[in-house]
Amino acid sequence: MMNFPPKTEWIEFKEAKTNFDSDDLGKYFSALSNEANLHGKLAGWLFFGITDRPSPTGCRFKLSPGSPLS
Q1: Distance (Å, rounded) from C-alpha 40 to C-alpha 19?
Q2: pLDDT given at position 62
Q3: What is the mean pLDDT of residues 24-33?
Q4: Is 28 helix (H, G, I), strand (E, B) or coil?
Q5: Which of 10, 39, 42, 49 sees the fewest Cβ atoms within 10 Å?
């Protein structure tokens, strides 16, 4: 079994099995960065291929460099 950090204001899990909306991606980056800053953390984290439980599901989002975001 894999150990994942708990979901917090600066750690988020998204299943994103095949794609993820680029507008939503920007919003998550902004929100996670702001929350990390407010909590004195160096960074926020957005994990793809993991559900909120958290448990791994796998992810095929942006597998190759230069591929479209969604």
Answers
A1: 31
A2: 62
A3: 92
A4: helix
A5: 42
